[in-house]
Amino acid sequence: MKSYAQPIKRLIDELAKLPGIGAKTAARLANYILRATPDDVEKLAESLVEVKRRIRLCRICLNPTEEDVCHICRNPQRDQHVICVVEEPDALAAIEESGVFHGTYHVLHGALAPLDGIGPEHLRLGELQKRVSEGNVQELILATNPNVHGESTALLITRMFKDSNIRITRIATGVPMGGDLKYVDKMTISKSLEFRRGM
């Protein structure tokens, strides 16, 4: 990267901080931005600033929204007795796209990863406990990713509520182990919810 001017190098470094973006992809994106019109670059910059300024977390489910309470939690047609627990907002979006789930959600904003320094205190588990204790929740569907981190997180949540009268289920396999829900097709998500299992 010695051949890049300092502002380009800084842009590449900042882009490379994004998840899934390595140095080479960041360099390609930076070069695209260099070729883009000033108007397009300004629109991109404005959209980044606008997202940070206008988007906040729903006070109930913690899904990003412009409102205090998101459209899902406000919807009286949703089954408030069932909460689908997901790691990230993109998993919620994938489940919503399937069109088969009609309950509410809880977004943890992560999964247990002790080797990466992510413990229970880094997840939004306190808010989940509060929702369960305050509400009339009958079922938690654990839709964490089917990998080591997601399974550990699901097990922790199961243990947290083991003495409650809540039914705790896990999405069925069909979602591949080691996979990520945001990359799974609608039919597979639909079937994994339909054939979920008790924990």
Topology:
Layout: H1 6-15, H2 23-35, H3 38-54, E1 56-57, E2 64-65, H4 71-74, E3 79-86, H5 89-98, E4 103-107, H6 125-134, E5 139-142, H7 148-160, E6 167-170, H8 186-194, E7 197-198
Parallel strand pairs: 3-4, 3-5, 5-6
Antiparallel strand pairs: 1-2, 6-7
Helix pairs in contact: 1-2, 5-8
Provide an overview of this structure.
By secondary structure, this protein is an alpha/beta fold. The protein has two domains: 6-54, Helicase, Ruva Protein, domain 3; 75-198, Dna Topoisomerase Vi A Subunit, Chain: A, domain 2, CATH 3.40.1360. Helices cover 43% and strands 14% of the residues. It has eight helices and seven strands, in the order αααββαβαβαβαβαβ. The strands form two sheets. A five-stranded mixed sheet has the order 4-3-5-6-7. It has a two-stranded antiparallel sheet with strand order 1-2. α1 (6-15) packs across α2 (23-35). The chain is elongated, with a radius of gyration of 20 Å.
Distance between the termini: 50 Å
Choose one word for the global shape.
Answer: elongated
In helices, the fraction of residues equals 40-55%
Oligomer: single chain
Low-pLDDT residue intervals, each spanning 5 or more residues: none
**CATH fold group of the largest domain:** Dna Topoisomerase Vi A Subunit, Chain: A, domain 2
Task: State the secondary-structure class.
Answer: alpha/beta
Number of helices: 8
CATH class of the largest domain: Alpha Beta
| CATH architectural group of the largest domain | 3-Layer(aba) Sandwich
Question: Largest sheet at a glance?
Answer: 5 strands, mixed
Query: How many distinct folded domains?
Result: 2
Strand line-up across the major sheet? 4-3-5-6-7
Series of secondary-structure elements, N-terminal to C-terminal? HHHEEHEHEHEHEHE
Total strand segments: 7
Task: Report mean pLDDT, rounded to a whole number.
Answer: 91
> How much is the radius of gyration in Å?
20 Å
Percent range for β-strand residues: 5-15%
